[in-house]
Amino acid sequence: MKRYECLSYCLFTTSLGIMGIMWNTEGVVRLQLPEKDPKATRKNLLLHSRVRAEEVSKDPQIGKVIQKIQTHLAGKSQDLQDISLDLSSVTPFQNRVYLKTRLIPPGHTKTYGEIARAIGSPQASRAVGRALGQNPFGLLVPCHRVVAANGKPGGFSAFGGLSTKEKMLHLEGCPLGKSLE
Q: pTM for this structure?
């Protein structure tokens, strides 16, 4: 696991609420979905940081990322796959899950089992669920687009739980159960 001397972060407003983003020279390290209030969002964003993090008010590169996220959450789907992620803090299994999940386009879903099969671990649908439950990249690794085999939403560990997951899918024009298969 890489260690960085300093990470940068900021909070920003979206249609879902106040979000937080943390980054370094490699890319986004963490994207925190909204919590009950901005203080809780900041706390959870910084909770997993093992190094010093500096709040930054303006950064041209991350400003473009934030704009894409805000536009996406305003109901105008954006391709977020080109946003660089620093995956150095995730396990090899999580890395495979996250990279495959990033390929699900807005407006579509896949099941935990479909992701497991796609990464070559067909019996690992529960492990896929656990990996997505630990997803540090929020919307950038669109775990909200992964649903249970029965077409139901499955789980969602962000504040607001399934209600937040359903709002995110709705913003993308995706009724639950609209799979790519």
A: 0.88
Give pLDDT, residue 41.
94
Three-point CA angle 33, 38, 39, nearest 5° = 115
- Strand 17-23 relative to strand 28-32: parallel, antiparallel, unpaired? antiparallel
- Cβ 139 vs Cβ 65: under 8 Å: no
Residues 19-28: tens digit of each pLDDT: 999 999 999 9
| Cβ pair 145, 110 in contact under 8 A | yes
Q: What whole-number distance in Å separates Cα of residue 156 and Cα of residue 164?
A: 8
Q: Exactly one of 6, 10, 143, 174 is catalytic; which is it?
A: 143
Residue 69: domain span: 7-73
Reading phi first (left if > 0) and then psi (alpha if -120 to 50, else beta), residue 27 is in left
Condensed to tens digits (0 to 9), the pLDDT of residues 111-165 reads: 999 999 999 999 999 999 999 999 999 899 999 999 988 877 777 777 777 788 8
Same domain, 134 and 96: yes
Average pLDDT, the chain: 88
| Catalytic residue status for 174 | no
Of 28, 46, 73, the last residue of a domain is 73
Q: d(Cα 134, Cα 62) in Å, to the nearest integer?
A: 23
Residue with tokens 């803090």: 89
Instruction: Look up the CATH number of the domain holding residue 152.
Output: 1.10.10.10
